[in-house]
Structures are given as C-alpha cells and as structure tokens.
Amino acid sequence: MKRKYDLIYQSLVERIEREEWExxxxxxxxxxxxxxxxxxxxxIRKALNLLSQKGYIQKVRGKGSVLxxxxxxxxxxxxxxxxxxxxxxxxxxxxxxxxxxxxxKADQFLQDRLQIDKDDKVWxxxxxREFSGERVILDKDFLIADRVPDLTVDICQDSxxxxxxxxxxxxxxxxxxxxxxxxxxxxxxxxxxxEGYSHVVLIKNYVYLDDATLFQYTESRHRPDKFRFVDFARxxx
Length: 237
Fold this sequence. Notes:
The structure is a single chain. The protein is of the alpha+beta class. It is about 30% helix and about 35% strand. It has a six-stranded antiparallel β-sheet with strand order 4-5-6-9-8-7.
C-alpha cells in the first residue's frame, strides 16, 4: 500500500502532465495543498520534496515551488571538453559575455590552487554564459601566463581551448574535478539571473597539459534549474 505522500506526489505529477500549471508558474502553497488533499503539512512537504528530487519543481526561497522545464541541459562530468564544444551539440541561443580579462600577480588563493609563486602572472577571465536570454553560468578561469602568454577578448568569447591547442600547439590532457553545491556569492547575485534560487552548483577544474603540468584552475558556477551533470561508469571486475 502506497504512503499518502506518494499518492499526493502521483496526483501532482498527473496535474503537471495535464499542464495544469505552466513552466515558471508557482504551484499552490503548502497550506493550500494541505487543505486540498486534507492532510498534514508534513505530508505535503514530503510530496513536494519528491517532486523536487524528480526534477519537476525547484523550491525558491521567498516564493514557493516553481514548476521547471524537465529537459535540462546535459553537462558531462568525466569528459574534458570546452563550453563551445558542448553548445555546438545544442540547438540553443547561447552567448558568452566577457566581463573581465586581466593579467594579475598570483595572490595566495592562486598560488595554492595553481602551485605557483607570488611573482608569477596569471590570466584572470570572468565570463557569463547566457542561454535564451538568461544569464545562468558564471565561469571564472585562471591560466598561468607562462604557458598561455597572450589572450584577447575575442579568443575568450570564442574558445580558449581551441586557441591553446590550434594556435599555441599545446595538448590539454586531463583534469581533476570537484562538484559542490553552495550559496550564491555577491558576485553570483550581480552577474547571474538567479531568480531567487538559493544555491548554485560549483564545478572546480584543475586542468593539466600532456606533460602533467597544471596550467589552469576554473570555477564554473551554474544556476541549478538548467543543468544535469552526467557521467558514465563501468564496474571493474
């Protein structure tokens, strides 16, 4: 016998699939659903949590439960591909905005992450990715200038990796990745269209050339409703 919150979850899914609500529209409040289904608020909360886990809704602080588009964009976790290579496979209106491009001295933060000295120079690139009019990814790239001596806004708008491989003749080999969920920073709030979302998905990349030297550290900060991070795994016998 199904638990009550499972039954309410199924009922809400059926209503969503009948398009009772449109994408971006708020579902009724917990109190309204509690009265409609004649149950406790805790039971409604469990049903909504299940909807969130299955990718139907996003809980937005100060607003409620928003119906979201379930067809999220797949971003590979294990692969090492550029943003341009990913979006070329998507039929989307995507733009890159270069917010900052500057050559800086390595502070302690960059010394630790890039394993360099304080006198070393680093390219600092801040880019915002816009999908169909919404700014939903903030990419912060840091590249060691000794390995990548020249960068321009045009290169950063197109593909840094294409420039490194085709123009500089370097081979990008592998990366170590870390994925966490964090509260938005003031910079996130300023540069992204967060629309009330209370968390961002942060992917940190430490990228190496084929001679095993670290040359890039990246923080890619994603609005959580637009992306699904995918991987392929095989069990080893």
